[in-house]
Structure formats: C-alpha cells, structure tokens
Amino acid sequence: MKVTGIDATYYTVGDVAALKGFYTELLGAAPETEWEGRLAEWAFPDGSSFGIYGTEGGAATPSGSALFAVDDVAKAVDLAKGRGVKFHEGGEITDTPVCHMAFGEDPEGNQFILHHRK
C-alpha cells in the first residue's frame, strides 16, 4: 500500500448545525457538500477538503488540528476574533522557521490553526 495524499480532514462533532455555521464564517464559504444534520464538507482550491461529521455526543475528546492556509495570519486572526472566535494565548502568532500560525478553537473545543507557509 502507498498513500498518495489526504482526501479530507474531518472532525467528529455533536452539533452539526452550529459547527456548520461556525466553519462557514471562519472559512468564508458555505460547504460544498452537505448531509443535513450529519455532515458538511468544504473543498479548497488546492484540492483538499475539511469536514465535520455528526456523532452521538460528538467526539469523546476534542482533538486534532486542521491547518487552514491563509495569506495573512494576523489579519485572519483579527477577523475571526471580531466574530468571537477563541484563540489560545489571545491569538498570539507563532513564528517558526517555516511558517506563521495561530491556534484557535471551535465551540466544541476542537483546535484549528490559521497557517501561512513562508
């Protein structure tokens, strides 16, 4: 077996409708694929996808980190914070040798990262 890529990154969630609204605002677009009350998936220009999948009671433990590519992390953080999105360390941007990133959290505690490669 040889893996050739990642088709999609999904979070299991308890409230699909609420998280669909959250991610629609965060990602700046409506989902491309939906199964009412069960899942929503957003497709990006690079061919990758992100989705949420409803399960009874949501994820047992919020986990994972989808890294959402943005052109300007500081601007993206400011826009998201203006919508009430919670960020770790107040939205402080981490500067690494290869990227800039800020760690946020959705309403169910799943972590996401706003990310820009250098």
Structure description:
The chain has 118 residues and is an alpha+beta fold. Helix content is 19%, strand content 36%. It has one domain: 2,3-Dihydroxybiphenyl 1,2-Dioxygenase, domain 1 (Roll). It is built from two helices and nine strands; from the N terminus they run βαββββαββββ.
| Overall residue-averaged pLDDT value | 91
Indicate the percent of residues in helices.
10-25%
CATH architecture: Roll
How is the CATH topology named? 2,3-Dihydroxybiphenyl 1,2-Dioxygenase, domain 1
Q: Specify the structural class.
A: alpha+beta
* Form type: globular
How many structural units, i.e. domains? 1
Our Rg estimate from Cα atoms comes to 14 Å
- CATH structural class: Alpha Beta
CATH superfamily: 2,3-Dihydroxybiphenyl 1,2-Dioxygenase, domain 1
Span from first to last CA? Answer: 32 Å
Biggest beta sheet summary: 5 strands, mixed
Portion of residues in beta strands equals 35-45%
Give me the strand/helix succession: EHEEEEHEEEE
Quickly count the helices: 2
Tally of strands: 9
Spans of at least 5 consecutive residues with low confidence: none
Fold topology:
Layout: E1 9-13, H1 16-27, E2 33-35, E3 39-43, E4 49-54, E5 65-69, H2 73-82, E6 86-87, E7 94-95, E8 99-105, E9 111-117
Give me a quick take on this structure:
The protein is an alpha+beta fold.
Keywords:
four-stranded mixed β-sheet; five-stranded mixed β-sheet; 9 strands; 2,3-Dihydroxybiphenyl 1,2-Dioxygenase, domain 1; 118 residues; globular
